[in-house]
């Protein structure tokens, strides 16, 4: 991915880019953008130049075969139009002669700085602290491997190391590897004939650099292009064979008889359940049945006038007569009504209890005086209320609020110690993260050593409250800010 690439930056790259732009905006620094090979240092350096158009900028890429005279010529040609200079002259002397009496800001970016010769490296480093160019602000950014950073820390004088700001470019997370892979493959990823799980495993097993993800994506794109590079006849033949194989498997599967289904005409032997022994019902006490006596009942036939009486005898029908058996009746002796009292005796009213004497009210204790509130420490006071002579440690600056929340959560900062305020930078304001409260600069520098190791690596610097108040527009309520942008 080179300059002008259409690929979108990943979240971690956007966060680093915001930090680089802030460091370039404020002060003259020697920024070492370091990391292992292939992590994307070149992309970050070139993208940073695109957002710093107000600088007079130059970009050079160094290789082992780079001629020092040619490198000087490339730098001067980008900074000055139609210059007249000697390429064998040291770079600070040339800049002093060409920029004498002029004001401006220069941004010089050197890629693959670990390939620089010692003479060129010394010339570039001297530009940061050159007193011959008091009105020229120079910021030097060197993209290099980590070995050069360790070497400069051991060999440079102290006044140089104080302005040295190393920024490490870490490897990509698993999610960012997948995002970069999808960007590189594009629509081919939707059509390729490859194993998705296998690709995800390759991405997880890689070293996390962008170069490793590019290599995996290139192999997949090449495989897909080799398949789609076949002629139409070959593609149709492969598709026909695949369809025939599927149809044969389907026919074989349907032709297999199911073991659970019986064929017609096949006799199924089913064992009949054995007859269970009848359960004896409990004996029911027999009630005395009523006597039934059948008596003949004469039926009366009515004859109509003019009809002959029937020759047959009167038919007799037997109609049952039911005689109920007598049941014994139990006689209960009850006394006379006079023995029953007409009403119950009324209960005697209970005597009312004597009222207890009311206790004497105890005297109310005198309220204790409220303790006076303890004065707020310097760390607890709002930024505007602190004295101008005090200091804070500036940790990070972002133009996106959600990046501030990610930074605070990633370093697990105590929210009572952290302050976030907004400035009025245009076209987009910045959110500055500061920590602590110190009475003087010496205490602030000592407070840097008390910070966790992860915060010490980002090189926080002591910032006076007077400078904070000049750019402070609004101090954020941290709890509300984190809840809103979390």
TrEMBL record:
Highest taxon in the source lineage: Bacteria
SPOR domain mapped to chain residues: 385-464
GO molecular-function term, one example from the UniProt record: peptidoglycan binding
Ranges of Acidic residues composition bias in the record: 347-373
Pfam family, one: SPOR
InterPro entries xrefs: AAA+_ATPase (IPR003593), AAA_22 (IPR049945), ExeA_AAA_ATPase_DNA-bind (IPR052026), P-loop_NTPase (IPR027417), SPOR-like_dom (IPR007730), SPOR-like_sf (IPR036680)
Gene3D superfamilies according to UniProt: P-loop containing nucleotide triphosphate hydrolases (3.40.50.300), Sporulation related repeat (3.30.70.1070)
Record region (Disordered): 339-376
SUPFAM superfamilies: P-loop containing nucleoside triphosphate hydrolases
UniProt-recorded name of the protein: AAA family ATPase
Lineage: Bacteria, Pseudomonadati, Pseudomonadota, Gammaproteobacteria, Alteromonadales
């Amino acid at each position: 991915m080179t300059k002008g690439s259409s690929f979108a930056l990943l979240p971690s790259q956007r966060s680093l880019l915001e930090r680089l732009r802030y460091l370039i905006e404020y002060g003259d620094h020697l920024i070492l953008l370091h990391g292992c090979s292939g992590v994307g240092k070149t992309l970050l350096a070139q993208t940073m130049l695109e957002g710093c158009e107000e600088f007079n900028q130059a970009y050079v890429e160094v290789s082992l075969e780079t001629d020092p005279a040619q490198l000087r010529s490339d730098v001067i040609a980008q900074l000055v139009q139609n210059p007249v200079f000697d390429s064998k002259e040291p770079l600070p002397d040339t800049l002093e002669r060409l920029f004498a009496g002029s004001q401006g800001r220069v941004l010089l970016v050197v890629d693959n700085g670990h390939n620089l010769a010692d003479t060129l490296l010394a010339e570039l480093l001297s530009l940061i602290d050159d007193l011959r160019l008091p009105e020229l602000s120079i910021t030097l950014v060197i993209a290099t491997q980590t070995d050069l950073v360790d070497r400069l820390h051991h060999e440079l004088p102290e006044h140089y190391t104080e302005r040295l700001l190393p920024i490490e470019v870490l490897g990509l997370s698993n999610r960012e590897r997948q995002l970069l892979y999808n960007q590189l493959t594009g629509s081919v990823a939707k059509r390729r004939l490859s194993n998705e799980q296998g690709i995800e495993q390759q991405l997880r097993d890689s070293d996390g650099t962008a170069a490793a993800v590019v290599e995996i994506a290139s192999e997949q794109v090449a495989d897909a292009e080799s398949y789609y590079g076949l002629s139409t006849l070959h593609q149709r033949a492969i598709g026909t064979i695949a369809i025939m194989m599927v149809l044969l498997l389907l026919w074989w599967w349907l032709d297999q008889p199911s073991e659970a289904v019986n064929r017609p005409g096949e006799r199924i032997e089913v064992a009949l359940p054995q007859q269970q022994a009848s359960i004896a019902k409990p004996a029911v006490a027999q009630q005395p049945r009523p006597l039934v006596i059948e008596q003949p009942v004469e039926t009366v036939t009515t004859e109509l006038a003019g009809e002959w009486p029937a020759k047959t005898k009167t038919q007799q029908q037997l109609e049952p007569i039911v005689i109920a058996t007598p049941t014994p009746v139990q006689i209960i002796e009850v006394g006379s009504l006079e023995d029953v009292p007409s009403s119950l005796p009324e209960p005697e009213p209970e005597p009312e209890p004597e009222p207890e004497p009311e206790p004497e009210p105890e005297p109310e204790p005198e309220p204790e005086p409220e303790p006076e509130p303890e004065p707020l420490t310097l760390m607890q006071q709002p930024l505007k209320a602190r004295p101008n002579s005090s200091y804070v440690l500036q940790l990070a600056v972002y133009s996106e609020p959600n990046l501030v929340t990610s930074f605070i959560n990633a370093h697990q900062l105590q929210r009572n110690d952290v302050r976030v305020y907004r400035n009025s930078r245009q076209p987009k304001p910045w959110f500055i993260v500061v920590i602590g409260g110190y009475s003087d600069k010496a205490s602030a520098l000592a407070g840097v050593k008390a910070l966790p190791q992860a915060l010490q690596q980002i090189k926080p610097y002591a910032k006076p409250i007077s400078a904070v108040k000049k750019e402070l527009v609004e101090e954020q309520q941290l709890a509300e800010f984190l809840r809103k942008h979390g």
